[in-house]
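One-letter codes give the sequence; the fold follows as tokens. Both lines appear below.
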Amino acid sequence: MKSLFTRKTILTLFLTILFALSTATLSAECAPKRIGISQFETNNFYVALPGGGSYDIGLGATDMLTTELSKNKNFEIIERNQIRSVLKEQAFELSGAVDPSSATKMGQLLGLKYLVYGKIISAGAEDKSTELMGVRVNKLSVKVQIAVRMIDTTTGVVVWADQVEGKVEKNGIKVERIGGTKTAVTASVYDEALQKAIVQIANHISQQSPTEGTIVKIIGKKIFLDIGAEQSVQPGQTFKVYREGEAITNAAGQIIGVDKTDICTIKIIQVDGNMSTAEIVDKKPQPIQQGDKVHSI
């Protein structure tokens, strides 16, 4: 009797530990990834403004990106002030551009998964005007270009790097003897162009950590997912539906992945707190079923 009781106790303890480990692993996978945004490098890049004065085009770029990425709840954003404070406390010396080696060290100190580094590489304005029958049209075009890299601090690998451009065009009209408006190059116009570039960067970064969910219900043409506004899902967003198959193991018998089959593409039509509703957008989709997985694209 005592032996049976002991075996039951050991089995119960084993199952409890296994459940705890599984829960911890799942929590770690679902937890937001910590991402640090370093101060954008500008090399004292200033642009001249009409009427005198100049404007630091890189001023606020880091804060803009922080604001945009904060909308994605898959990330926990570590702001530049926090980064600077920890590095100063640890007497970490950082000069010039961030490279994979320094990014790895910073990631260890700050507990980051990713580090984003950007550099303003060009900015300028072009002012053109045309006149026809006493009407003068003034066209202002402002461009800002940013080079950006996203580094996985656990491996030092650059997972994404690109050069993006933000462009703003504005028009002004003046009629002879009546007057009108002339569009001027101002700091706010540069900020508008900068914001457009930052939005592109934020979208690319978000794609490196896609939102994932599961189909929990299908009613007619409506597909219900277990992810919603709390996971930053938005109406109009598209997801790929896929089905998991057999587990893939290595020579030692360890599971290293799972076979996945793409089924179709769906679009979000309604979003609630922790749920969203979607519809299929493919013309000839394969049949879907409850339990199929989805990831943002």
About this structure: Residues 2-30 form the longest helix (29 residues). Residues 151 and 158 are 4 Å apart (CA to CA).
